[in-house]
Write a structure and sequence with these properties.
alpha/beta; two-stranded antiparallel sheet; 10 helices; about 35% helix
Length: about 325
């Protein structure tokens, strides 16, 4: 009988320690690293949240989790001297209104020793599409875990839709329109590209990263196309850059997103790792680079894409910006 009581006491203490660890006060990060056997439901229960909210906190396109993946979760925080709601919101990827609502606060005043529930912001999602700022995408990509090998990033422009179709708020409508065309018109399984950048500087995730692009080069030689796409991430930059002048915000996003992809996959900018649609013969699948005479090639990503669509333009105008951004991101991370 004494052994049973002792065992029950040990289990109770163990459970309490686990609960306290999950809701640790002044946890330096509201990040949970996925472990073997974890599910969204189990993690949500541990942090008194829901699987649906965890998906929105983290921009998850499915319930699938991988060991080592990092998730933003709600935490319990004990107010320290000098804390303000604004500082806590910045530190824990939340917002002042979210913290006030979660804790029933009627003003911005908080007191040392006060305990607060801090809930992360939800990302903008519509189905599998995730719309983010550059800063949100930086956190998103470093927290994600992928299994597919990626060796190159494809740069495209949409041509249509162009800037004329973008009204500043219709990101998801444009994404759905592209997917409808890709599925209904091209007979692909879903939207072709992993990423889409917009004139306002936002970036949207479409096709999951662990599924290779589909038809992204539009090649007639499908065997060659699938081989090219197998280790690629495709970016569609909304706009007709044969005629549209790219906005400063979109330009910054294209550079930043490309730099983040280079860092995520351990790549360095070159004609092998950042490739333009223009460099490929759309009939044979041959990479012709600047030797396009006598070949069927598209102007994509545009004759004015960072000064031109040649390898010389990429080396002179685009790759240096990406390298500089990589250095900036690394410095900020340290």
């Amino acid at each position: 009988m004494k052994k049973c009581i002792y065992l029950f006491f040990c289990v109770a203490v163990f459970w309490q320690l686990n609960w306290n660890d999950a809701h640790a006060e002044n946890n330096p990060r509201n990040i949970y690293e996925v472990k073997q056997g974890d599910t969204l439901t189990l993690i949500a229960k541990k942090y008194e949240s829901t699987a649906g909210d965890l998906k929105l906190f983290n921009g998850l396109q499915s319930d699938r989790l991988l060991v080592g993946q990092k998730l933003r979760v709600p935490i319990m925080y004990k107010v320290a001297p000098g804390d303000t709601l604004w500082r806590l919101a910045e530190k824990y990827d939340s917002s002042v209104p979210i913290i006030k609502t979660a804790n029933g606060l009627s003003s911005n005043a908080i007191n040392t020793g006060q305990k607060l529930i801090i809930i992360p912001k939800k990302l903008a999602m519509d189905g599998k599409f995730v719309l983010m700022t550059r800063e949100e995408f930086r956190d998103w990509i470093f927290n994600q875990k992928f299994t597919r090998k990626v060796a190159k990033v494809q740069q495209h422009h949409t041509y249509q839709p162009s800037y004329k179709q973008f009204n500043g708020t219709n990101h998801f409508a444009i994404m759905k329109g592209m997917e409808e065309y890709h599925v209904g018109g091209m007979k692909w399984s879903m939207i072709s590209q992993q990423l889409t950048t917009f004139p306002d500087g936002k970036v949207a995730v479409g096709r999951p990263f662990d599924i290779a692009p589909e038809g992204s080069f539009g090649l007639q030689n499908k065997e060659a196309m699938h081989k090219i796409e197998a280790d690629a991430i495709a970016i569609e930059n909304l706009g007709d850059f044969d005629s549209n002048q790219m906005t400063a915000e979109q330009k910054e996003t294209i550079v930043t997103v490309t730099a983040l992809l280079m860092l995520k996959y351990g790549l360095a900018p070159s004609i092998d790792t950042i490739t333009y649609h223009h460099w490929w013969d759309i009939n044979s699948g041959e990479r012709v680079l600047d030797n396009s005479h006598g070949h069927a090639v598209k102007t994509c990503p545009g004759t004015e894409f960072f000064g031109g669509n040649s390898t010389a333009s990429a080396k002179k105008n685009f790759y240096p910006l990406v390298r500089k951004k990589i250095q900036e991101i690394r410095a900020a991370m340290h």
